[in-house]
């Protein structure tokens, strides 16, 4: 019996040590990288698994087209990284093999296709999700996900905390014995403060008047309570921006309340609630296939599609028909992050036109519709027509 206690207590102590070390690393964090001051911006392109390499190649092609002059002058360099596959990760027994991590760290920003996340019973070893690992390794603490449906008055931007909460120790829960399994949720002062500031800074810079914090602080009192409390502290530094707070259950309901939902602007929330609510939000815009996601840290940033790697499409020979729009949305966010806002706007306008307004080509995921390559060409033709 005492062995059970000792084992569990030792594991718990080791987890706390790891988190204390992480907090120290956070404290020594630098300022955000200033892209304007770099001689060269290195963009890593990482295809991932399943349909990932297919759709990522289209987004890469569009970025090369938009940044042609910058590549020519040496201001921008692309670096293709193709080792982040489930086969390599399983073989290395690591979420990100060491050589791939070293390559990622040579870039400033990364465009990443979806990667397969192993789960119990699927035959892959129980390694951590590559997404989650990359967010932690590169300390990409802000997961920024915009959702817009102009005709419905929806214009939301989610600031999902990306390195803590239920994800911090998601693959390190403790099986105490055959009867008890325990997972952990971690909230730190520094971790909450930096995501709250990111949300408020965004609001202030973009003329938004309200930030909404979403938690379950009435029940998950310690961690969510701390998160909410820190949002309230941070709000005091932003007098022009109001903070309101909602619980996650009623928030999921209010997103489908047509009158209420148009009032939300900037939302800030812990990791797991952010994961869930952003999928719901993306559905109003046409589904997770239409939304991009930015994972931003002080030194690195990674931009990805929200959807999964769809291995079945590859098995059925349909990968060429996979929809590249989510990863192209991620490319919009990347361009904006590295300082090319005009190009980001141009690409966003073309995407909206091709996906929603003109629709000369339609993607169906099979040979009844366009291929991803044809759709990417359509987007580039649309941009050329505008210039
Ligand atoms: C996302 C995804 C990931 C997450 C999965 C693939 C681990 O759902 O980016 O939202 O849960 O964060
Ligand atoms: Mg998700």
Structure report:
- The protein is of the alpha/beta class and 387 residues long.
- It has 2 domains: 22-140 and 297-387, Isopropylmalate Dehydrogenase (3-Layer(aba) Sandwich); 146-283, Isopropylmalate Dehydrogenase (3-Layer(aba) Sandwich).
- The chain has 15 helices and 12 strands.
- It has helices spanning 2-27, 52-66, 68-73, 86-92, 98-104, 130-137, 189-205, 223-235, 248-254, 258-261, 271-284, 311-315, 325-337, 341-357, 372-386; strands spanning 41-46, 76-81, 109-112, 142-149, 154-161, 174-175, 181-182, 210-215, 242-247, 266-269, 292-296, 301-305.
- The strands form 2 sheets. Strands 2-1-3-12-11-4-5-10-8-9 form a 10-stranded mixed sheet, with helices on both faces. It has a two-stranded antiparallel ribbon with strand order 6-7.
- Strand 6 and strand 7 form a beta hairpin.
- It is globular.
- The protein binds 3-isopropylmalic acid and magnesium ion (MG).
- 3-isopropylmalic acid binds next to helix 6.
